[in-house]
């Protein structure tokens, strides 16, 4: 995260024409804008089952998640979701449509979740995963999901499985991702 | 933007376990992750017309845009879109659904665009707007729109006006926001 500054010349100020306090360098005037970061991921379908990854890294090592991660510079949101499926599950995927956009204010994340399907049928654990599986609804380890938003995405998708045209979801009412 | 670093102790390195080069401080190990930033905005409807704002600030001063701007810490994407309508058009809005998620890689932006409607009927230019108006399709100043993504949102919305359930849009094929 870039919320840490390594220099004592920063002061909290509202820059001219701005509405929010920022860290402003009193030496050079540099303004360190800190904004939410984007996580992109996907529910990847294959023969009626869904691709889940068991996390090999913190946070929530050993718990199950959807392939997802921080979006990088120089890629589209869809390309970022495809890259994450490749990195975490050695899976090539095709993006079908947007499922949901969630905000987790506590950790300053916006999560953009797509519906996708496997391109081919290859998948295996990538370096950030202990294990990967294709799970039917009954096989999803609901008690061992890594994050609330993984549950949100799976439950919301279950309600529209087989439907093409629907409005994308956001946070369930009153839920903001507290663990 | 936080792409500028004010200190010569940074080196480009791939941190352990990472896949991308980052600016890493050789003194303290601080990693300056730079990721895309989020712009949220909305098409605001009122009596069949759409709310447009004439920009008072750079870039594209004098051109027409939708109320939109950078998402801040501590708010949801929907709250950010509501705040932007308040700041730019003194308008209270109700978010109806998500219209589109665009990526503009050249400027490292993801734009999250909602459909909304005016709550009440008050609106007027905020400090970042020279003028605001409610425009019918025929009144939209198509030749004086500030950004390609403003045109994308308006054109894509025109194709689904009156429809509730549709998959959200992304960049038009082959378009990445070049001016």
Quickly list its features.
homodimer; elongated; 179 residues; disordered N terminus; mainly beta; seven-stranded mixed β-sheet; 10 strands; three-stranded antiparallel β-sheet; Nucleoside Triphosphate Pyrophosphohydrolase
Q: If you had to describe this structure to a student in words, what would you say it looks like?
A:
- Chain A contains 2 helices and 10 strands; from the N terminus they run βββββββαβββα.
- With 179 residues, chain A is mostly beta strands.
- In chain A, the strands form 2 sheets. In chain A, strands 4, 5, 6, 7, 8, 9 and 10 form a 7-stranded mixed beta sheet that branches. The first copy, chain A, has a 3-stranded antiparallel beta sheet with strand order 1-2-3, with no helix packed on it.
- The relative contact order of chain A is 0.19.
- Residues 1-5 of chain A have low confidence and may be disordered.
- At the A-B interface, helix 1 and strand 8 of A face helix 1 and strand 8 of B.
In short:
The structure is a homodimer of 179-residue chains. The first copy, chain A, is mainly beta.
Roughly how many Å is the radius of gyration of chain A? Answer: 19 Å
- Tally of strands of chain A: 10
Spell out the helices and strands of chain A N to C. Answer: EEEEEEEHEEEH
CATH fold-level label of the domain at 37-160 in chain A = Nucleoside Triphosphate Pyrophosphohydrolase
Count of DSSP helices of chain A?
Answer: 2
Proportion in helices of chain A: 10-25%
What is the top-level CATH class of the domain at 37-160 in chain A? Alpha Beta
Q: Can you tell me the overall shape of chain A?
A: elongated
Oligomer: homodimer
User: Per CATH, which architecture of the domain at 37-160 in chain A?
Assistant: Alpha-Beta Complex
- Unreliable stretches of chain A (pLDDT < 50, length at least 5) are 1-5
What percentage of amino acids of chain A are in beta strands?
Answer: 25-35%
Instruction: Identify the biggest protein-protein contact and residues per side.
Output: A-B, 46 and 46 residues
Distance between the termini of chain A: 20 Å
Mean pLDDT of chain A: 93
CATH superfamily label of the domain at 37-160 in chain A: Nucleoside Triphosphate Pyrophosphohydrolase
Q: Which structural class fits the helix and strand makeup of chain A?
A: mainly beta
């Amino acid at each position: 995260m870039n919320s840490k500054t390594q220099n004592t010349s920063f002061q909290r100020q509202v820059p001219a024409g701005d509405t929010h306090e920022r860290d402003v360098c009193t030496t050079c005037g540099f303004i360190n804008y800190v904004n939410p970061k984007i996580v992109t991921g996907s529910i990847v379908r294959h023969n009626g089952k869904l691709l889940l990854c068991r996390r090999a890294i913190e946070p929530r090592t050993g718990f199950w998640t959807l392939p997802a991660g921080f979006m990088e510079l120089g890629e589209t949101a869809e390309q970022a979701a495809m890259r994450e499926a490749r990195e975490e599950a050695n899976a090539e995927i095709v993006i079908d449509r947007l499922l949901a956009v969630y905000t987790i204010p506590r950790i300053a994340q916006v999560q953009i979740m797509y519906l996708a399907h496997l391109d081919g049928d290859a998948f295996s654990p990538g370096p950030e995963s202990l294990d990967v599986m294709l799970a039917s609804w009954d096989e999803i380890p609901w008690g061992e999901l890594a994050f609330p938003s993984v549950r949100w995405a799976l439950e919301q998708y279950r309600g529209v499985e087989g439907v093409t045209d629907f409005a994308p979801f956001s946070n369930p009412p009153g839920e903001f991702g507290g663990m």
